[in-house]
Amino acid sequence: MRLPLIAILSLMLLLTACSDNSIYSKSYEIDGHEWHMEDKLEFEFDIEDNSKNNIISLTLRLNEDYPYANMYLFLETLGANQKSRIDTLPILLAESDGKWKGEKKGSLIEFVIPIFNGQFPDVGTYHLTLQHGMRDEYLPGVLDVGIKVE
What we know:
The chain has one helix at residues 2-17, and strands spanning 24-29, 34-36, 41-47, 54-63, 70-78, 84-92, 103-105, 108-118, 124-132, 138-140, 142-149. By secondary structure, the protein is mainly β. Strand 7 (103-105) and strand 8 form a beta hairpin.
């Protein structure tokens, strides 16, 4: 009788330890693996408790066709208070020697890059719009772009 109880408790502990803390996660697959400068990616999530610390991370998957060691992004944020702001995010993707900073699996490189760590000023719905700010009209080698809020 004790063995099944121990097994159940162990399974519950394992499931609790592996739970995802994210309150929002969305990713866009980029058509043809070329992100056009006019393509704006939209994200919307709710913050129910602004007393907690939250982390917003950019999730990015590239292949080896991506030609640069960095990426500039324009991030427009419309807060729950309806105030808008636009930030330019410089993202370093590779070291000066060309070694990728993300996790490389074959020809795929995955990045999870924190872009905000703190408390949201207001409870409510937040809207984020993400657009690449590189000089090229098309960015080759971009497979997926997403946002994760924890």
